[in-house]
Specification:
alpha/beta
């Protein structure tokens, strides 16, 4: 069996930053499953689909083909063969992804691809349901979290560094709303797997968190 490291947790906990470091150190591929949900959401936005209209979302899934490729170790998300990496990290796409991720047809399509990737590669995979649903037999499972205040501050600092304006209170409100949506949906809600190790990164550095996860592989 391939080696599988599953990292789940709420928005802004630092999953992708940590997962990339761990993947590099282990020589595994990094699979950012949120980016797949974001690509599906981008497709729905482009086609003016109401994310809450489950029938329309399910039907439109047939027209959205998401695949991944790796260039110099970086994950590139292709939506109908177009590289959409540059369009995925906006608040609009993230909020839509949290809504359309409730859709069972969409989830099945995306998780089938994740399982296939994990069966054929050693992976560090991050998301919301990796340890609980997608890779229940992963050798290492981590539930990475941080307080909503700390997560909002990290996001605020990121936007400031890019020279963008931001309201930290609004960021925290959006984070709390997204947590609620992701944790209370009917299928594959965000929750800590019974056998996952809880890591609260509120007072930890990136290196400390990465080292902790690597130590779990030994
Ligand atoms: O991690 P992210 O912010 O890129 O994820 C965007 C949304 O996609 C998130 O709010 C919920 C959904 N998602 C999911 O339902 N399951 C996953 N494994 C990953 C993301």
């Amino acid at each position: 069996m391939s080696y599988q490291i599953a990292i789940d947790g709420p928005a802004g906990a630092g999953k992708s930053t940590i997962a990339k470091i761990v993947a590099k150190k282990k020589g595994f591929i990094y699979v950012d499953t949120g980016a797949m949900y974001r690509a599906m959401a981008l497709h729905m936005i482009k086609n003016n689909i109401d994310g809450n209209d489950s029938e329309k979302v399910a039907k439109e899934c047939d027209n959205a083909n998401v695949t991944l490729k790796y260039i110099d170790g970086e994950q590139v998300v292709l939506l109908n063969d177009e590289n959409v990496n540059a369009f995925l990290r906006t608040e609009e796409v993230g909020n839509m992804a949290s809504i359309t991720a409730k859709n069972p047809t969409l989830r099945k399509k995306v998780t089938d691809l994740q399982i296939e990737l994990a069966n054929t590669n050693d992976v560090v995979m991050d998301g919301r349901d990796i340890g609980t649903c997608v890779l229940p037999n992963a050798q290492v499972k981590v539930y990475l979290t941080a307080s909503s205040e700390v997560r909002a501050k990290r996001r605020y600092d990121e936007l400031m560094a890019k020279g963008e304006s931001a309201d930290i209170k609004k960021i925290e409100e959006d984070i709390i709303l997204r947590d609620h949506q992701d944790m209370t949906r009917e299928i594959s809600p965000l929750k800590q797997a019974d056998d996952a190790v809880l890591v609260d990164s509120s007072n930890m550095t990136i290196e400390e968190v990465a080292d902790k996860i690597i130590s779990l592989c030994e």
